[in-house]
UniProtKB/TrEMBL annotation:
Cofactors required: [2Fe-2S] cluster
Lineage: Bacteria, Pseudomonadati, Nitrospirota, Thermodesulfovibrionia, Thermodesulfovibrionales
Species name: Dissulfurispira thermophila
Protein's name in the database: Oxidoreductase
Listed InterPro entries: Cbr1-like_FAD-bd_dom, Cyt_c3_hydrogenase_gsu, Dihydroorotate_DH_ele_sf, Dihydroorotate_DH_Fe-S-bd, FAD-bd_FR_type, Flavoprot_Pyr_Nucl_cyt_Rdtase, FNR_nucleotide-bd, OxRdtase_FAD/NAD-bd
Protein family (similarity comment): Belongs to the PyrK family.
Length: 279
C-alpha cells in the first residue's frame, strides 16, 4: 500500500506533507533531540521560518528550521518533548518517515548593514530558530561588528547545543551562558539573561537584536534593549502560538490583529507595540 505521505514537489499543495526520512538523531539533552531529515526534493527556507511536522496517527506541530539552508535536501529540527506529537516524534528512529509541510512564516530579516553589532538573546528551546542566524553570522563575520549571544537555560544539563557554543566562541562570537539553577560542577552565571546586559559589548543605538524564548523573557529583553536606546524596528523576535493549519486559515494562532503563522512568527518590537500583539 502506498504511504499516506506521497512524494511530491515542495509546496505543490500547502496541506499535503512531503515525505521526509530521518537520517540522523542526536540527543542534545534529556528531552531535546536534533533530527536531520532528508527530503525528496530541495526545500528553500530561511532562518525563522517553520515547518508543520507530522507523525502518522499522532498529529502535526509547528517546528522551526534550526539549520541554515544550503541548497540541499536536508533540514535540521531541534525538538523538545512536551506532549502528544512531540513525544511521537521522539519515538521515531533513523530510517523512519516523517511528514513535512512548509516552509511557512516570514523569517528573520538578515540584511544587517556592514559593521553593525548584533545581540542574540535566547532562552531554552528558543535557541533553535536562532542557531541558523548564528551560523549565518559566522559565515559573514568579516562584514559585521561585535556579535554577542546571551543564552539562558534552566539548568546546566539543559544547555542545548553546548558543544557548538564552544565552536561559536572560537568563531569570534561572545557567548555568555547562564542558568536558573546551578549544580556542584557548574561555576558559570546563575540568573536571568536580562541580568547580563553589562557583559554585552555593543553600540546599542546602532545594533540589531534577535530574541527567542519564553514570553516573559522576550518582553523583558525587548523593553530593556529599547531602554538602552535601540531602535524598536531593530529589536526582532519570533513568537509562538497554538497552530493547526500554519497557513492563515483556521484562526488558532490569531493574536491581536495578526496571524502568527502568516504575518509572523517574526515581528519587530515596533510592530508588537503598535499592533498590541504580545502586550
Ligand atoms: C512557529 C513555532 C515554532 C516552533 N518551533 C519549535 C522548535 O523549533 N522546537 C520545539 O521543540 N518546539 C517548537 N515549537 C513549539 C511546538 O510546536 C510545541 O511544543 C508543540 O506544538 C507541542 O505539541 P505536542 O502535541 O507535543 O504537545 P500537546 O500535547 O499539544 O501539549 C503539551 C503542552 O504544550 C503546550 N503547547 C502546545 N503547543 C504549543 C505552542 N505552539 N506554544 C506553546 N505551548 C504549546 C500545551 O498547551 C500543553 O501544555 C514551535 C511553535 C511555534 C508556534
Ligand atoms: S495556524 Fe491556522 S491561522 Fe494560523
Amino acid at each position: 500500500m502506498k504511504n499516506h505521505i506521497t512524494n511530491r514537489k515542495a509546496n505543490s499543495n500547502i496541506y499535503l506533507p512531503l515525505n521526509g526520512k530521518i537520517e540522523e538523531i542526536k540527543e542534545l539533552t534529556n528531552d531535546v533531540r536534533l533530527l536531520k531529515i532528508r527530503t525528496e526534493s530541495a526545500i528553500d527556507y530561511k532562518p525563522g521560518q517553520f515547518f508543520m511536522i507530522s507523525v502518522w496517527g499522532a498529529g502535526e506541530v509547528p517546528i522551526s528550521a534550526t539549520s541554515l539552508y544550503k541548497g540541499n535536501t536536508t533540514i535540521e529540527l531541534c525538538i523538545r518533548k512536551t506532549g502528544i506529537v512531540t513525544t511521537a516524534i521522539h519515538s521515531l528512529e533513523v530510517g523512519q518517515s516523517i511528514g513535512i509541510r512548509g516552509p511557512f512564516g516570514n523569517g528573520f530579516p538578515l540584511d544587517i548593514p556592514r559593521g553593525k553589532d548584533v545581540i542574540i538573546v535566547a532562552g531554552g528551546i528558543g535557541i533553535a530558530p536562532l542557531r541558523p542566524i548564528i551560523k549565518y553570522l559566522i559565515n559573514n563575520k568579516y562584514e559585521l561588528g561585535r556579535v554577542t549571544l546571551l543564552y539562558g537555560s534552566r539548568t546546566p544539563d539543559e544547555i542545548i547545543f553546548k558543544d557548538e557554543t564552544e565552536q561559536w566562541k572560537e568563531s569570534g562570537i561572545s557567548v555568555i551562558l547562564t542558568v536558573d539553577k546551578g549544580n556542584d560542577s557548574y561555576s558559570g552565571n546563575v540568573g536571568f539573561v536580562t541580568n547580563l546586559w553589562h557583559t554585552v559589548r555593543a553600540d546599542f543605538k546602532n545594533a540589531i537584536a534577535y530574541i527567542c524564548g519564553p514570553e516573559v523573557m522576550i518582553k523583558a529583553a525587548m523593553r530593556d534593549l529599547f531602554f538602552f536606546g535601540m531602535s524598536d524596528e531593530k529589536i526582532i523576535t519570533t513568537l509562538e502560538a497554538h497552530m493547526k493549519c500554519g497557513v492563515g486559515k483556521c484562526g488558532h494562532c490569531y493574536t491581536g490583529p495578526k496571524y502568527i503563522c502568516t504575518d509572523g512568527p517574526v515581528f519587530s518590537y515596533k510592530q508588537i507595540k503598535e499592533q498590541s500583539i504580545l502586550m
